[in-house]
Structure formats: structure tokens, C-alpha cells
Amino acid sequence: MLAAGTTGGGRSCPEAPRAHPPASVRGVTLACVTTAPPPAGEAPAPLAYHEAVAARLQAEDAAAWAALARAAAPDAAALHADLLRHAYRLDPDAHPRVHAAAGRAAKALGVELPVSVYQAEGGGAANAAVFQLPGEVVVAFSGPLLDLVGDDELAAVVGHELAHHVLWSARDGRYLVADRLLDALASDASSPPSYPETARRYTLATELYADRGALVACGDLHTAVSALVKVATGLREVDAAAYLRQGESADPASGSRGHGHPETVLRAWALGRWHLRPTEGDAAAATLLTPALDLDALDVLDRAVLEGVTRGLLEDVLADSWWRTEAVVAQAREYFADLDPVPHTGAAAPAWGTPDAGEPRVVPDRATPSTRRYLGYVLLDLVTADPDLDAEEAVRRALTLAHRVGVGAELAEVARAELSLPAATWRRLEAAVAAAAPRPEPTPEPTPEPEAGAGGRSGGPA
Questions:
Q1: Is the domain of 130 the same as that of 273?
Q2: Residue 233 near residue 72, CB atoms below 8 Å
Q3: Is residue 142 over pLDDT 90?
Q4: Distance between CA atoms of 176 and 165, rounded to whole angstroms?
Q5: How many CB atoms lie within 10 A of CB 72?
Q6: Which SS3 state, helix, strand or coil, does residue 293 take?
Q7: Are 72 and 180 in contact (CB under 8 A)?
Q8: Which of 40, 31, 26 is nearest to 106 (CA)?
Q9: Lesser CB count within 10 Å: N end or C end of the chain?
């Protein structure tokens, strides 16, 4: 779909339809726009997020993946019957403008299937939707979209919708299978919260991809952005250049908090980055989709990263043989049953942290305060695991390591709250940790240039 919006009463518009058809085409909401610089006839590559999530889901549940990959195609006859009853078919002879835009977008994106076009009944907000059927692609418009956009913008709109088809068809439907599996997992009340969050981000990634398709179809960034804004706002006149500047001030670094679609201004911002340079666009997409490693909003990829960080932190603590008592190792294995408490010899290749083998690994910069606090509690669990260890020494060693990896303040906070240590002990600990902290190399003082006439020769004329 092209855009998200609101309907009467302030309710959110329905989410963009998937490749499988809904029960009815009435009231469909359109959203999506294309961007990008591949050659004519070649669609953009899927986002890195699409591939990473698909690979993760397939590895986690190969049986469910295979079952969905074998799922039956949608019922084309039922969809056609619904369209014929509740939509107006835009035939080529009567509506050459629409079919010219569809043909232009299909050629730009390398879509070889015939494209049928309908206008849904019922009014409502301007939007568009795509339905992928065996041997055919159907694009359905709703609301006053056709009256809002010019010919080039219409090509962008159709390109956005056809990009959905291109993505779902790529690699034998790999990304459609991932989408369907996420739908099932997100709707299961017993699923961990990481699955609904992954489904949300995957949908946002798909809209960012379709926006790139819109750009490819129309060939002009400002046209793609104006089409996007017109569909989202209902305006007939749009200053795309000003909107792109607005995007720079909309705090894209905080990521998208959208459901169904990223915020329109952030979509325009990301599209502009991709138009500038594909690598810039990929970085922009990553910024919107994975801005932080947040314990309270993990997707399946972030969950794997945080598991790796937690395991690495435990391994780095246990690299100090002082900690490797039976009680402490047992506590560490409450997190990972297969944890090896004995550090491996040879060069390490940690998934996170410093590049030097044997050095404690540093918590990723994008870890939020809640994530860092969680890691502080992980360390506190080890501090309190063995009552036979000297409590002050355990805290000192844990704090020293925590400061080196970037969670010193968090461990100090939770330890002060949870442990009954006297104030004098804390003063000794703070002094010991400060003494153990690496000191920055002193910056050499620059040698002053000799002044003219002061025992040296001036570089100027005599």
C-alpha cells in the first residue's frame, strides 16, 4: 500500500494487504512509493533486513517454513468475483492514462505479467493495493487517488504496488514466506514479544522497499516524494524539495515508530538517501528499522545480538579464574546451559566489542539504558552467586570489568540498591576502580614556532 492515514472517527486505516487476497476489496487502503538507481527493467534488491529476518526464521523453524512455502496459491476466482461486484474495472481503451502508467512501471521494474487495474467503491482516503495472483497482478485504487496525482506520479504509485509483487516473487517467494510466518507468529498469544516486533519492522522494511520501486518506476525523486505525500495527505499541491528538507529535521536517528508504514516524512528521507547513493539508502533503512538495542523492544535479530552480548559478558568474567567457583559457573549456566567457563586459547573473533583478542568486549553503542541496566544485573547475579567469595572483592572485580565494557554506572547503581555494603566500603571500591581504569595517553605539547627576532630567523622577508 502507498500511504497510511486516518478515517472518520480517528481510526487508523487498515494495514497494507499481503500478497494473499482479503475477503473483500472494499475499503482497501493504498500505500507505497518507489525510489532508486538500478537500470531500467531491473528492480531494487531486497533490503538487508528482509534477508536477515528470512534466514533467521528459516533456521529457527525449518518445518513451519517448508509448510508455508508449499501453501496453496490464493483463490483467483474468488478475488475476481469480489472485484467485479465491488470495484470498477479500468479498461485500457477507456482509461489509457492509467494503463500507460502501469505499463511504464511494469517495464521499469521488469514485471512481465499482465497488470489489471480497478477502482474500489466506497470513497474513503486515497490509496492503492496490490493483489498477486497466478499469471496476473491486480492493482486496486481507492478514494480520489487518480484525481490527485499527475501522470508521472501515477507511475510512481503503480511502481510502489508492483514492487510488492516483485519482492514477494523474488527467490521463489522467500520473502513472502517470511511475511506469512511472521503474521502467524505475531498473532499467536504464546509467541515471545520479539515476533510481533519483528513483524512490525518487516512490514516497515517492505514499505521502504516499495518506495524504492516507486522511484525506479517514475525515475525522479521529487515526483516519487510528491506522489507519496499527496496520497498520505490528500493535498493536490506538494513541495517535494521542502518535504525532503523537513525529513532532515524529523529526528530519523530515533527510528520509525510506525505500524504498517513508517512515518511519511521518514520514508521520504530514506528514499532521498537511497537516491543519493544506494549505500546511504541502506544505512538510512537500518537507522529507521534498528535504531537501538532496546531490551523493551527486541526483534529476533536484536534478540540474537543481546544473547551474544550476554554470553560474551559472562565469558569475559569467567576468563578470570578467581570467579570460576562451582556456584558462579552454575549461575552463569542459568543464562546459557552450554556455556564453557574455560576461555578458549588462540585468537578470538567476538561478535561484538573490541578487536583485540583477550580484551573485554564493549557493549554496543546502540544499547539503551534499559539494556545496559539488564547487563548490570547479569553481573550482579555473578557477584552474589557464591556466598563464600569475598563480597567486596567480588564487587571490585565486577565493577572494574563493567567500567571497561561500558556498564560501570549501571552495575554501580543496581549494586548499591541491592547490596548492603557500608559507605566506607563503597569509598574503597570507588578508589580501587578509579585506580584500575586505563588512563588516557598524555597529549604531547606542540613545539612553539620561534618568533622572528627572538634568537631565530623569521620565515618572512628580511
A1: yes
A2: no
A3: yes
A4: 9
A5: 6
A6: strand
A7: no
A8: 40
A9: C
Strand locations in 51-186 (E): 87-89, 115-120, 127-133, 136-142
pLDDT of 31 = 33
Q: How far is CA 418 from CA 234, 382, 431, in A?
A: 56, 13, 20
Q: Give the number of other Cβ atoms within 10 Å of residue 23's Cβ.
A: 8
- Whether residues 265 and 312 fall in one domain: no
Structural domain including 223 reads 8-289
Same-domain status, 215 and 87? yes
DSSP assigned state of 449: P
d(CA 284, CA 356) in angstroms, rounded, equals: 29
Q: State whether 222 and 314 are in the same domain.
A: no
Instruction: Choose among 91, 235, 234, 97: nearest CA to 158.
Output: 97
Number of structural domains (the chain) is 2
Determine contact, residues 228/35, Cβ cutoff 8 Å.
no
**pLDDT tens, position by position, 53-96:** 999 999 999 999 999 998 877 778 888 889 889 999 999 999 99
Q: 267 in a domain, yes or no?
A: yes
Whole-number Å distance between alpha carbons of 228 and 230: 6
Mean pLDDT calculated for residue range 236-241: 96
Place of cell 525515475: 219
What is the average pLDDT across 400-408? Answer: 93
pLDDT band at 134 (very low <50, low <70, confident <90, very high): confident
Position 133 scores a pLDDT of 82
Query: Cα(71)–Cα(372) distance, rounded to whole angstroms?
Result: 42
Q: What is the pTM of this model?
A: 0.82
User: Are 249 and 307 in a shared domain?
Assistant: no
The reported pLDDT for the residue numbered 310 is 95
* Angle ∠(374,376,377) on CA atoms, nearest 5: 65
